[in-house]
Sequence to fold (359 residues):
Amino acid sequence: MRRMRAGRLGFLSLFPALPLLGLVAMCYVLPAPPKTQKLPPFPLSLFAQATPDDYVDEKSCIRCHAKSHNTFVRSPHAPFVNDTRDPIDKHGCQSCHGPGRPHIAHLKNRAELYNYVISYTRATPIQGAMACLRCHADTMTLAHWRRTGHAHADVGCNACHQIHQDLEDTDKSAQHSKASTQFPRARVFVAAAEPRKLLKADEATLCGQCHPREVNEFRQNFHHPVPEGRMVCSDCHEIHPRHETERQEAAQPRFGRSQLDRIHLRGASDMCVTCHPETAGPFVFEHDPVTGLSGDGCLECHRPHGSHNPRLLTLFSRGACNQCHTDKANNHFPGRTCWQTGCHVGVHGSNTDRFLLQR
Ligand code: HEC
Ligand code: HEC
Ligand code: HEC
Ligand code: HEC
Ligand code: HEC
Ligand code: HEC
Ligand code: HEC
Ligand code: HEC
Ligand code: HEC
Fold:
């Protein structure tokens, strides 16, 4: 009986008392805000929990990690975290490895040790990414990163980037991560562009570690000039999807989602056209496959990396056209290339001729 009445009336009769209840609740809660705040996941929790006192003088790290210190000060990344005007959690070693005091306090307990320091070799790739992206939200956000094929495949930031400068050449016993010691020194293409942006190697060598098939496509007779050092993989592949590509994508949704994902949020034709604008028109007489309104656009006829056929074509000579124009395969000027002088020289489109006989 009592319970029933409370059930029916209790709810309504509480209304006038709500503000009061709220106040009582606040008084109860306010003295201990950290307990009610939801902590972000590790490793961000280390920074969220830290008080200014938890950040120690960097010199104390040197005491136990002299080699890592030396490899870091030589790193091109060092100047970026040098500015003493930066907030304390974005300064020096601790900006990447977390506040020092909890780490030093938990040294004895081997089981707990790695809950109090960020080790990029032991943390999961996504944890490592979270730590780097505290400062690199301009390059991409965690949400962007999570959508990439690399994040799905557990390829973390330090699979490609090397923060501590490798001392292998000068000091054989140098202490550094396994990944860096195992990295082969031999370049895939002798003339390939130099490594930059703290990458572990030039892009052809680095990416070729995991994508040998694609890198080998550049050995074919006709290829984009990656081996010659005039281009790098990331000229076409957006490794770090950025905000502006999303906007472009919304404005020009040329490809289905899956196609975009494969080349990291950049429609293939849109990307090709940034370097080959003359092929895209608009033309008075468009050639349907080039416009890319249906199908794969440029990739209907061209291979992106390399090909046995001139002009990176998917098939040799007439074969490229016969994929679609099957009716012209046998008796339409047999034996000749479709785009030789006098024929369809305007393969990408024409401003003067409906049959693409002129450009
Ligand atoms: C009193 C000695 C001592 C001090 C001071 C110290 N550490 Fe450590 N640190 C250790 C020990 C011991 C380990 C366990 C791993 C090992 O044996 O190398 C460790 C582990 C680490 C790791 C993980 C290494 C890995 O396996 O990837 C990092 C990163 C690290 N410390 C950074 C720091 C930073 C940054 C500071 C300064 C704020 C610091 N340490 C201060 C002793 C120390
Ligand atoms: C910009 C981020 C960043 C900063 C700043 C940084 N490190 Fe590191 N540290 C890393 C990464 C990433 C690794 C993993 C190995 C690598 O990529 O070289 C690492 C590895 C380590 C290791 C483990 C080495 C091993 O053998 O596995 C130690 C110890 C360490 N760092 C200490 C330091 C100290 C001391 C400083 C300051 C002088 C510092 N780090 C500054 C990112 C950083
Ligand atoms: C405390 C902030 C901070 C953290 C943490 C941090 N970085 Fe940086 N990093 C910077 C700044 C600042 C720059 C220079 C400006 C820029 O490129 O955004 C930079 C530059 C870079 C560059 C470009 C270097 C170049 O040659 O232009 C790379 C690559 C990079 N960081 C990778 C990493 C990785 C990987 C991690 C995690 C292990 C990391 N950073 C963690 C602040 C940080
Ligand atoms: C440590 C290994 C590793 C390295 C280094 C690496 N990748 Fe990957 N990459 C992968 C894995 C694993 C996948 C996912 C499986 C797959 O699609 O083959 C992937 C997927 C891709 C994809 C397909 C994307 C998708 O969404 O499916 C492209 C494009 C790519 N990588 C380009 C590159 C480029 C360019 C580089 C060099 C800057 C590079 N990768 C370096 C391992 C790596
Ligand atoms: C598959 C290899 C690969 C992985 C994994 C990777 N990067 Fe990169 N990163 C590159 C390449 C290649 C470049 C140079 C081309 C470019 O700017 O896109 C680069 C450039 C950068 C730059 C410089 C950007 C600029 O505009 O100058 C930053 C910062 C950076 N990466 C941070 C990160 C962070 C943080 C992660 C992890 C969340 C990460 N990278 C993971 C390959 C990689
Ligand atoms: C001229 C632009 C361009 C360059 C340069 C380039 N790629 Fe690609 N790559 C593409 C396009 C376009 C695709 C999509 C192909 C398709 O869908 O058939 C692709 C696909 C890929 C894939 C995914 C293959 C699959 O089956 O999903 C990988 C991996 C890849 N490229 C790696 C690389 C590597 C490594 C380099 C540098 C050595 C590189 N690419 C240079 C344009 C390029
Ligand atoms: C970053 C700029 C860039 C991008 C993006 C790019 N290319 Fe290229 N492309 C080049 C360069 C440079 C050459 C070599 C031109 C030379 O050797 O004079 C080339 C050559 C070619 C050739 C051969 C031309 C010839 O004369 O034999 C074709 C075909 C081609 N690209 C198609 C594509 C397609 C299709 C895409 C998109 C998948 C693409 N390109 C994306 C820069 C680019
Ligand atoms: C219907 C098939 C087809 C499509 C689709 C196509 N191309 Fe071509 N492309 C060709 C043929 C055939 C040639 C050779 C023309 C020649 O040698 O005169 C060629 C030549 C080229 C060349 C060499 C320079 C030139 O203009 O002769 C470039 C660069 C090129 N294409 C880029 C692209 C780009 C970028 C796209 C997507 C916007 C694209 N192509 C779409 C068939 C195609
Ligand atoms: C991926 C399919 C595809 C490929 C490959 C292709 N075409 Fe086409 N082409 C079309 C379509 C679709 C049309 C529009 C058909 C229509 O309007 O009847 C067209 C129209 C044309 C026209 C205009 C004819 C007309 O009746 O309007 C010519 C000329 C032409 N293509 C030549 C070529 C040549 C030359 C090649 C080889 C370099 C080629 N095509 C490769 C799909 C393709």
Notes: DSSP finds 21 helices and four strands in the chain. The two ends are 91 Å apart (CA to CA).
